[in-house]
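Replying to the earlier thread about multi-chain prediction with a worked example.

Input:
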Amino acid sequence: MPEALLSIEDLVVDFKTEDGVVHAVDGVSYDLFPGEILGIVGESGSGKSVSTLALLGLIPMPPGRIVSGTAMFKGRDLLKLKKRELRKVRGNEVAMVFQDPMTSLNPVLTVGRQLGEAIKTHYPDEKDAAVKQKVIELLRLVGVPNPETRYTQYPHEFSGGMRQRAMIAMGISNSPSLLIADEPTTALDVTIQAQVLEVMKRVQQETQAATILITHDLGIVAEMCNRVLVMYAGHIVESGDVETIFRSPRHPYTIGLMNSLPKLTEDEEWLEPITGAPPSLINLPPGCPFHPRCFLARERCREENPPLEPVEGSGHQSACFFSDELIGRKTKFSEAVA
Amino acid sequence: MTEGSFRDHENIVAPTTVVEGMPLAAEGAVAGSGGATLDPLVEGTLEAGLDFKVRSQWSYARMRFFRHRLAVAGLIGLIIIFGAGIFAPLVAPYGYAQIDLNNILHSPTTLDHHYFGTDGIGSDEFSRVIWGIRTSLEVGVFVAVVSTIIGLVIGAIAGYYRGWIDNLLMRATDLVLTLPALAILLAFSALVGNGSQWTLSIILVAFFWTGIARVVRGLFLSLREKEYVEAAKASGASDKRLMFRHIIPNTMGPIVVNMTLAVGTAILTESALSFLGFGIAPPTPSLGALVANGQSYPNQWWLTIFPGLVIVLIVLCVNFVGDGLRDALDPQQRRVRA
Amino acid sequence: MLTYISRRVLYSIPVLIASTFFSFLFVSYAANPLIAARANPRLSPQVLHLLVVQNHLDKPVVVRYFYWVESIFTQKLGKSLITLKPIWPDITRTMAHTAQLIIISETLAIVLGVAVGIYSAIRQYSFFDYTFTSLSFLGFAMPTFWLALVLQILFVDIYTGWHVRIFYTSGLNTVPGGPAWSLDRLQHLALPVLTLLIISFALYSRYMRASMLDVINSDYVRTARAKGVSEWKVIMRHVFRNALIPITTVAALNIGGLLGGAIVTETVFTLDGMGHYFVLALGQGDTYEVMAYLLVTAVIIILFNLIADIMYGFLDPRIRYD
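Result:
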């Protein structure tokens, strides 16, 4: 059993707002191993982005607050690092790619300059010419045509897909051991999505960086990831490897998610959304956060918060008291995976 | 940016953003379960004994307004000051032009209610200031309201229908902006004015409406492209319905804010014009004229300080209230507590 | 970039023409020079007749406009109808004085305003921030003329009370016609500059602060931090330049307000500047002097707007490719 590259234990993140305290991340623990692609799936507000932003200290600290938890990375707790130490990690050993490349790139600086900055920040003694060469190489690697010309251009002169490729190039520029991609294709057209995901796959294979891929799109998870975490209302409700989760999900929310997707290969009369609405993170219902919308909900669910427990199959965990009742339950994708 | 004129960045001059259909505080989107049953989330939280309120848009805004201590202070200040102005006949111990040659140039004292002292002909400064407040109130409110109405109508037509009206409006306001505002107003009132408060008010309206029209135009321009307008249009809504039902309600926030702030600007402008001798002339009271009068008596500081101080207080309170309104009516704007 | 600039310049010319035309129409209508000339007791009938012919006062307004435009180039704006003095020397002299006042005030206001705005944004909600935010609220609420008077009274009292002359409270020099950049002149300009400075500073500091906060919370700043860039470099390289862009608009739009403020300030402090000149001309109903002022200010404003447009193009590459 290889050693975990990243080990998060009981992470809790709060935000203080005018309307109350928002519990964005409410006790998240998981391990990440070198070279694997871990997907984190959830709706908006599930805490998937916040949990990773916390690792790099990118959450605005008022109003945000890391209440408790540890995040061991290569022997150090990222959450306890001093600012200066954390800065050495950012963009170097742990890099991040964000969702919207139009707003994530500085509009008044050239793309080449911004990519160069990623390198020069951690290798200030490198000569400018060498850095420029490296940047051009990186752009070529991610499939940006004419990188020499593109180097001097501004973000608004790039198309959406190209911008995201540039962001990816920026992320891998210092060969990080961990790359976090926060909904990297959500803002892109579907066809461009495919291209960018292709680039990410290729890049991951070459660099062998462990990757956390955050998305709300189960299709992307199926395509790209080795393992997946399903999050809801700041909790992990299910985790396991991708095949198992798709073949036999063991949490009502996961099942609901899968069933709510339209099946493009057949006619369907009705869509099956999950009833109810996402919970308020300020006034979370007591007990299991999902129980108001759950078809399995019982008395116990209202009172106790089910912990993440292993279910049959290695590495498969579910946070539901009644996960056993879901054995053999088929979703639309069961046939597809089998 | 298509016009290539930096002046299109009007959101700088009138920093307002639009309220977009503020949702109810708790939504009960019940999909697929028929009819009369309470949304499971609602039921769940109610049963958990948690209280929750469904708020309408306006009470939400009101709540936010009263959280602003400065805005509330400003409101109280305005009530006191404007109250004094409205009830001037009851509040002012003396008349505006009441002469008392036995008591000239008296410094402030509680004797005989001469709180602000007396001037060169023995008139009570305190009373004169209160009468002046009344005029300022009349001018300020009149100018703000009327110019807003005119600006709203013309700006709406220009922004919605575009075409020649829009062009005309933009050219006209461009022209007006090439000369200093005070210079234009001075020229107008010097050459056309007659010292009457209402002539001056009309002159001010004729100038102020252009600013409001530009803001409204900008709002309409951006709103008509919004998806919900397109949606309404697609379901056959007429222009009139679109304007009144969909667009105008969403412009109310910025318009109210602008109108409030315009009261302050109008009062400042009127007092400047009256100070220079081109605005309101005696016997109509004016705070600006009072300050000008005080200039003739440099050793009697109370004759210049007090009327001006009152102007400062009025505008300060108006600005606080306007700021509070801006935050209250626009939940989307980042909470930059200015 | 060049096309962008030339387009802006070309657009300005018709604007200038239209602006002066409408002003001329209005001023001529409201203060008909023919009537004013006829009513002027200083003019003998022969001189009056000569004046009418020379200035084409009997022709319709539109025609007179063209003659006036012609006079700008050929006769240097001609002569005042009331005092019969040539206008050009007065305008240039007063323009120089007002320019000095405005340039000093505006430069100081921008530098201080931007600096305070930046610091307020970085240290949001600190004592510094609250203090300066309150001060800027105050600055917005103060009438320029009142602030000028308060300063004047204050320093008059200091003089009479302590017998120390720190700043002068009227005039441009102790001896009229004194040098422009002497200590004496600066002592005379100090209070007027302070007046305009305070009011403009409030504007710039507040907008800079708001702009900074906007940018600080943007996605690309988060990206820069995620790359490990130091906070100082983040502010200077990413935040500052982007935050400065809207300020060019504000500064350019403020020119009109500054010129208006100059009118008031010059009146209070009795400075021989354009604003004071304008007020006097208005009082006398002197058409051509009023028009001269309006022409000069229109040119100044249009020029500043052009400069701002160009600077905008420099700062924001997205604009250049319009």
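Chain C touches chain B through 72 residues (CB under 8 Å).

Feel free to reuse this layout for your own posts.
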